[in-house]
Amino acid sequence: MLKNLEQLILSANFKDAEDLYHTNDLQHFHDELISSAYENGNMINYTFLHYLLMKEESAELHNLAFSLFVNSLTHIDGAYHCALYHAQRAVELTNEQDTFSLEHLLFLNIVPDQLVSDEKAIDICHKILALDPSNKTAKSSLEELLPKIK
């Protein structure tokens, strides 16, 4: 567990929380932040990510923001819409070459508001499969989507 991450964020001590971000494994940091946000449900967790993004925009931080909105902060109105922005930005920053970011966009096809159309989701599946022909998520999504648009 990252010592005091939650307390640092809740007290808006973003500088020290940023130091934890820079000195820890990204996956471990991701897991701790998501877990903390589940427990406290506070938007300050996103404010901290926004702080980091303003200092150093990256696909990894946009993917983390996406995860925050689709996992821990879904109870907030507009969470999926915020996730859409971050998924789109991660895809842009990776020049559509990262299947992980593309899968985030694909996920938004199946959320209640269906923020990504079936047609766009099919296009995303083709992009994923061009990068990774064995991608199970894209294959199964295509199987579900193609009959819907015919």
Descriptive labels:
about 150 residues
Compact summary:
The protein is mainly α and 150 residues long. Helices cover 73% and strands 0% of the residues.
Describe this structure in words.
This protein has 150 residues and is an all-alpha fold. The protein has nine helices and no strands. Helix 3 (26-40) runs parallel beside helix 5 (59-72), helix 6 (79-93) runs antiparallel to helix 7 and helix 7 runs antiparallel to helix 8 (118-131). The mean pLDDT is 96.
**Radius of gyration from the alpha-carbon trace, in angstroms:** 16 Å
Could you tell me the mean pLDDT? 96
Query: What is the helix tally?
Result: 9
The outline comes out as: elongated
How are the elements arranged and paired?
Layout: H1 5-10, H2 14-23, H3 26-40, H4 44-55, H5 59-72, H6 79-93, H7 99-107, H8 118-131, H9 136-149
